[in-house]
């Protein structure tokens, strides 16, 4: 708000005449006005305030005229806060002409409120008696304090080893600093500095002329599976007593562990015929590890590999390096049996939790044709989609049903066509039943679509 100092009697006189229509109208031939200037106080030294005084001739030029000016103290006082000045401005009378008044203010490091002073215009002197008055006769110069600031810390993101992302601590000041300061802090949390992340230290230089400084939390990579860990920064103070630590004095960055355990893929189902010989390959168990370059090893069957004939030989074996699952004791596997195996694997450092792998034992089907027994073979089983039926010697109806009993496909294969093909390529992976019906018998066999 602009401040005017008028004697009380003069103020009363002006108020009494405010409704007098005989008073002259302001600015019949033009007006003069001055702007306000606000600047950061700055460091110790001179800071230039440029006030602009403008003549508005209402679209017309006037004769040359002059205007006096002088500074007036308010909360800012001369000479400690600014240099007092007084002089005369000489206008040519050109409409729109502007002249500058230069006032030098002094900066400091004092924590204080904003301060202001005035530049007062007065005494318009015209050469030909033009009616030129003041539209705004007082400019306000504001010295905006920039010496006191509040320092805070926040966290930006988290650190992740898997993709190289770094979390950051962001230091912020409420006002731009005129010169650098030292910020002091402590580091805490369950993450170990120098072991889990590179050393940050206990202080940092906060530069001048900026609001923010970011400090990265750089992970030191390892292969250990561990819980996510916390890095906590707590601000303790600064080298400048005018920069104080605010309420947001602590922040946390999380180090997200990327060394996941490997895991055996879920929903792996294999099939083997009951008459398969020892060392018959059943299939290869698959595993996943999100760590790049993992080599799996130490495949183990930890449960479900039950010796059913008590001869101390287990029914299945798994290659420790490849994960290939084979028949180890054919006497332990009988048609229709299902083995639920618990299998683990390591990535060289970490071991997976046991995952269920199912092995279904298929019954070998046969058809009795008078005195002759002709075997029917279904292969491959499991299959990615195409199954072949070999050994049909009479008309046969082949139906495929799902585990709920719903028939999916049904096709009649006439006499003389000994081989048949069943296509489940468009079906979802899972267990199905293939039923063969002839005039003499009906048989079903479980098949697995990968």
From TrEMBL:
What range(s) does the Cadherin domain occupy?
272-384
Which range is the signal sequence, renumbered to this chain?
1-18
Q: Which InterPro entries does the record match to this protein? A: CaCA, Cadherin-like_dom, Cadherin-like_sf, CalX-like_sf, Calx_beta, Secre_tail
Which UniProt keywords are listed? Calcium, Ion transport, Repeat, Signal, Transport
Residue ranges crossing the lipid bilayer per the database entry: none
Pfam families the UniProt entry points to: Calx-beta, Por_Secre_tail
Supply the name of the protein.
Answer: Calx-beta domain-containing protein
């Amino acid at each position: 708000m602009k401040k005017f100092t008028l004697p009380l009697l003069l103020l009363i006189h002006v108020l009494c005449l405010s409704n007098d229509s005989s008073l002259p109208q302001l600015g019949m031939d033009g007006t003069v006005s001055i702007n306000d200037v606000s600047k950061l106080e700055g460091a110790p030294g001179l800071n230039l305030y440029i006030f602009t005084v403008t003549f508005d001739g209402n679209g017309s030029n006037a004769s040359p005229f002059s205007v006096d000016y002088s500074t007036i103290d308010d909360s800012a006082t001369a000479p400690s806060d600014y240099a007092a000045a007084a002089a005369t401005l000489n206008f040519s009378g050109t409409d729109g002409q502007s002249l500058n008044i230069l006032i030098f203010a002094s900066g400091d490091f004092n924590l204080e409120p904003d301060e202001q002073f005035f530049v007062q215009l007065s005494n318009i002197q015209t050469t030909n008696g033009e009616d030129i008055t003041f539209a705004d006769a007082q400019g306000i110069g504001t010295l905006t304090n920039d010496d006191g600031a509040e320092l805070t810390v926040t966290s930006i993101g988290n650190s992740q080893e898997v993709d190289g992302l770094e979390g950051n601590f962001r230091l912020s000041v409420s006002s731009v600093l005129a010169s650098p300061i030292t910020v002091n802090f402590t580091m805490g949390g369950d993450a170990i500095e120098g072991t889990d992340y590179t050393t940050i230290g206990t202080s940092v230089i906060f530069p001048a002329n900026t609001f923010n400084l970011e400090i990265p939390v750089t992970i030191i990579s390892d292969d250990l599976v561990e819980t996510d860990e916390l890095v906590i920064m707590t601000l303790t103070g600064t080298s400048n007593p005018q920069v104080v630590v605010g309420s947001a004095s602590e922040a946390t960055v999380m180090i997200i562990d990327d060394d996941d355990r490997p895991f055996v893929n879920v929903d792996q189902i294999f099939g083997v015929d009951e008459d398969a010989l020892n060392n018959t390959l059943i299939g290869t168990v698959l595993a996943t590890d999100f760590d790049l370059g993992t080599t799996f090893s130490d495949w183990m069957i930890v449960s479900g590999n039950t010796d059913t004939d008590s001869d101390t030989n287990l029914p299945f074996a798994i290659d420790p390096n490849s994960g290939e699952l084979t028949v180890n004791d054919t006497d332990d596997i009988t048609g229709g049996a299902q083995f639920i195996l618990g299998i683990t694997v390591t990535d060289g450092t970490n071991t997976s939790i046991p995952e269920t792998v199912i092995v279904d034992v298929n019954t070998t089907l046969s058809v009795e044709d008078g005195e002759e027994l002709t075997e029917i073979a279904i292969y491959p089983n499991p299959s990615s989609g195409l199954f072949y039926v070999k050994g049909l010697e009479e008309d046969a109806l082949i139906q495929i049903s799902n585990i709920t009993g719903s028939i999916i496909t049904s096709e009649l294969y006439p006499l003389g066509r000994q081989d048949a093909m069943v296509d489940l390529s468009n079906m979802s992976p899972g267990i199905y039943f293939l039923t063969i019906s002839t005039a003499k018998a009906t048989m079903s066999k479980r098949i697995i679509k990968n």
